């Protein structure tokens, strides 16, 4: 053999030691880089979670700010856009709600006016109905009174005819009385002339 076994084994230990040191240093560097990356990632994730919790609690001013230039920046921008859209949607819903409240107020006012008008119409119809019944009763009373008046007129007419007959009879009696007086006056005149 060209190289002795002893020489080879003595350097193997040195190579093993150097390799172990390199592996340990690489492990430490990898761990440090992993911890650094993990803390950066977890910090961004925790910031996104905090912002989403604020939004879930009703704070729509919450935003996610990050200086990263990777997928987490895209996620942060997407969260900010989503919060902006939710805020705009809530504002739109509030406007619609306000319009709905105003429309409900107008419907209530119209309903109240309609109800009052209906009550007034109902009262007017009741008054007309009462007036019609009264008019019907008054018409019946008027007919009864006209019948009574007609009977009285017939009675007056009958009495007038009787009075006419009595007046005629009285006139005849007066004419007969006047004729009798004239006859007596003539007789008195004759008697006075004869005696006189």
Salient structural properties:
single chain, 196 residues, mainly alpha, 2 helices
The total count of helices amounts to 2
Rounded mean pLDDT is: 83
Multimerization status: single chain
How big is the Rg? 67 Å
Helix proportion? over 70%
- Contiguous runs where pLDDT drops below 50 for at least 5 residues: none
Global geometry: rod-shaped
Structural class: mainly alpha
Strand content: under 5%
Largest sheet: none
C-alpha end-to-end distance: 232 Å
Give a count of the beta strands, DSSP E runs of length 2 or more: 0
Element pattern in H and E: HH
Characterization of the model:
The mean pLDDT is 83. Helix content is 90%, strand content 0%. The longest helix has 125 residues, at 71-195. The N and C termini lie far apart (232 Å). By secondary structure, it is mainly α. It is rod-shaped, with a radius of gyration of 67 Å.
In brief:
The protein is mainly alpha-helical and 196 residues long. It has helices at 5-56, 71-195.
What topology emerges from the helices and strands here?
Layout: H1 5-56, H2 71-195
